Amino acid sequence: MTRADAPVAPPVVLTIAGSDSGGGAGIQADLKTIEAGGGFGTSAITSVTAQNTTGVQGQHLLPLADIEAQLTAVLEDFDVAAVKTGMLATSEVVDLVVEYADDLPNLVVDPVMVAASGDRLLEPEAEDAYEDLIAAASVVTPNADEAAVLTDREVDDPDAAEAAGRDLVATGADSALVKGGHVPGDAVVDTLVTGDEVTTFRHDRIDTEATHGSGCTLSSAVATRLAHGDDRTEAVGSGIDLLSSAVRYNLDVGEGPGAVHHLVQTRNEAARHRTSEAVERAVSALVEADVSPLVPEVGMTVAGATPYAETPDEVAAVEGRIARTMDGVRPNRGVRFGASTTVARFLLAVREHDPAVRFAVNCRLTDAVEDALGELGGAVPSYDPAERSTDTPAAETTQWGVGRAFEASEETPVAVIDRGDVGVEASAMVLAADADALVSRVRTVQSVVEEP
């Protein structure tokens, strides 16, 4: 039997950048990110670096004719929808790209000057050559240090970033994203200047040095979203969201700090079905075991987070919870993502301290249950919401309580007790890295509670 083919036509994205033998940055990072974002990645390599997570050991610039031949080959054959530039190394290469600017739609210019390791990747005399390339850019994405070089303006706070962005737009760029990763502060503030509009993107700073490839990944993600038809603000916002997760769930590879996780969102999306199935399996096991003594008055929720979950929409849970009936327990509805708020937010708060924890279930809190939790062989800290200071907003009680619980434990707790508050039922949240371990812990508590 001969089967008919079923071709697909993803948007083509071209990256013009250097090769990173370590795989975390450069062309390698670009192509991974483009493919993860649903684009078809093509490339024109400008230079070959001997590089890894510890630094750049060597660099070889390709002959200008070879770079031009790659550009011509791609542009003659492919309907390129977006382009990003990375390491261009010399003014001659920058000038070459400028010559092709009219044929480079949705051009995202990442003015790579220095590697994350501190190694210089651009000749000093090539800095001035960027002016014409930036003028042709749809988006230019300098970090604070690069923006300072390009604008002669010190970028040390969001106001200075906005001013630098306006300077870059004034040179001809459609928009400028001045990244805030190099600006001190608990939060990273990225500033997008587009004509008369300024948009800031704020997210918590990740406590890691594993940022190798971050600039490449962000600019490639933005270019890919532009290729899909997003406007510049949407494309930048999407790219920043990806990078935030890619930095938090970085890749522990090499002897250096590691690299960002270019495929973090793709891997997370692929795990949704398995996560949902695991929650369904846990629910079935608890229903079969008739865990009635452990079901709170408000009902029991079994929740499971995808490996890189950051929001409740990435947490699968029982819709409507598991309720007690005259004949045992049963779930009100099925399992779906975003079905839980309370347990999901508790689980996400726990994952801020230990991302390996992926499953949680809320249990009724009685003296017998609290005693039984001691049989789980791990830490079972508690917190009392009444002790929350007035400086902590009520909406942040869960984060505060989980933080207190982890401070009181030398290891990740097997369960955390919430003593309850006015109008809020006290509960015990049982935690685990996988669904089977969660069920086992709940069954252990149940068996102790039901002992004659």
TrEMBL record:
Entry EC number(s): 2.7.1.49, 2.7.4.7
Residue ranges annotated for the Pyridoxamine kinase/Phosphomethylpyrimidine kinase domain, each copy included: 20-261
Protein name: Bifunctional hydroxymethylpyrimidine kinase/phosphomethylpyrimidine kinase
GO CC annotation: cytosol
Residues annotated as domain Thiamine-phosphate synthase ThiN: 279-443
GO biological process, one term: thiamine biosynthetic process
Membrane-spanning residues: none
Source organism per UniProt: Haloarcula salina
